[in-house]
Amino acid sequence: MSFSSEVKNELARIDPEKNCCQLADISGFLRTAGSLKLEGGGKFKIVVVTSDPAIARHYKKLIKNYFGTPTELEIEEGGNLGKGHRYMLSIGPEDRSEQILREAGILMVRQGNNYISDGIYDGIIRSKCCRKAYLRGMFLGSGTISDPVKAYHLEIVCNTKSLANDLCKMINSFVDLSAKTVERKGKYVVYMKKAAYISDTLAIMGAHSHVLKLEDVMIRKQMRGEAARATNCDSANTDRTLDAAEHQIEAIARLRAAGRFDQLPYKLREMAELREANPEASLAELGEMLEPPLKKSGVNNRLKKILDAVESI
Questions:
Q1: Euclidean distance between the first and final Cα of the chain, in Å?
Q2: DSSP letter (8 states) at residue 188
Q3: Peptide bond preceding 292 in cis form (omega within 30 of 0)
C-alpha cells in the first residue's frame, strides 16, 4: 500500500463528533469526488466514485448518520487503470439528493433559479474545526501525497479555478501554512512541497500517526544531509591542503635548484624539510612535529617566508 493510501485509510477512520464538522467533511468530499446526473423532472442524482473501500464505507456511514439517508453502493471492476475496483455511492432524488446538495453548499439559488456553485460555501467553514473537516473531505476525494522518502509533495485536484482558489485561501488561513495553485491538463491543482507545511497539514486533517512517520523521514534526511556536508567540507579542506602543500614543495625545489636553500635560516630549512617529507600533513600536524611544537599560525608564517624567498630568485 502506498504512503498516500495509508494516509487516506487513517483519515477514513475519523468520525467527526460535531454535526457541523460532519457536514463540512461530507461537503468537501462531494466537491472533489462527486458528480451530478440529471434525472427526470430536472432532479439530480449524486454519484461519488472512489477506488478506496475504506473511504466508501466511511462516507456511506457518515451520510447516513448526518442526513438519515441511505446511499446505494456499487462495486465495479476497472479502478486504477484496469486494476482493482471502483466503489460508487449514489443518492437519488427519492433520497433527498437536492436537499443534501443545498445543505452542502453546492446547489444554490440566484434570482429564483438553481445553479451549481463552483467554490466553497463560506457558511460551512466558519469555524476552524469545520475548515479542518472540509480539508480532510477534499483530500479524501481527490488528494494525494508522495512517499516522503522520495519527495515532499501533497496536492488536491479541483475541477474549477474558483474551487482551487477558495481551497488555497482556506489552507492559507491556518497559521504558518502556504499552498499554491497550478493548472494541469484542464484541472486546477492546489499543492505544497515544503515538508513542514505537509506535516502541519496532515496534523490538521487528523493523520497523526503519519505525521510521526513523515517527521522521522525528515530527521533521517537531515542527518544524512549534515553528514554529507561534513564529508564534503572535509574533502574540500583536504584538497586545499594538498594544493597548498604542492605549491610549497615546488617552491622548495626551486630554492634547491637555485642553490639558495642552504642560505635559508635554520628554522625555515627545518620547516621546508618537514613539508617535503609530509606533503599531506595539515599546518597543525606540521606544527606538532616540531620541537618545541609550533602553533598553526607560526607554521603558516614560516611557509609564507619560504614562498617569499622564491620570489627573490
A1: 74
A2: E
A3: yes
**DSSP-derived pairing of the beta strands 154-158 and 143-145:** antiparallel
> Which residues face 88 on adjacent strands?
49, 74
265 vs 270: CA distance, rounded Å: 9
CA distance 100 to 276: 87
* Strand order through the sheet with 85-91: 34-38, 44-50, 85-91, 72-77
- Which helix (H) or strand (E) element contains residue 289? helix 283-289
In degrees to the nearest 10, what's the CA dihedral of 85, 89, 90, 96? Answer: 180
Burial of 96 (0-12, 13-18, 19+ CB in 10 A): middle
**Residue 107 to residue 60: CA distance in whole angstroms:** 20
- Helix or strand or coil: residue 82? helix
**Average pLDDT per consecutive 10 residues, the chain (313 residues; last block may be shorter):** 94 95 96 87 88 94 93 75 76 91 89 84 94 97 94 95 96 93 94 94 96 90 70 63 84 88 89 87 87 90 89 76
Instruction: Check residue 160 and report its DSSP letter.
Output: S
Q: How far apart are CA 273 and CA 30, in angstroms?
A: 81
Q: What is the pLDDT of residue 238?
A: 64
Q: In the prediction, which pLDDT does 231 show?
A: 61
Grid cell 567540507 is found at 233
Q: What pLDDT sits at residue 112?
A: 76
Cell numbers that stand for 31 in this block: 466537491
Q: What are phi and psi of 69, to 5 degrees?
A: -115, 130
In single-letter form, the type of residue at position 277 comes to: A
CB 195 within 8 A of CB 225: no
Closest CA to 219 of 203, 236, 196, 248: 196
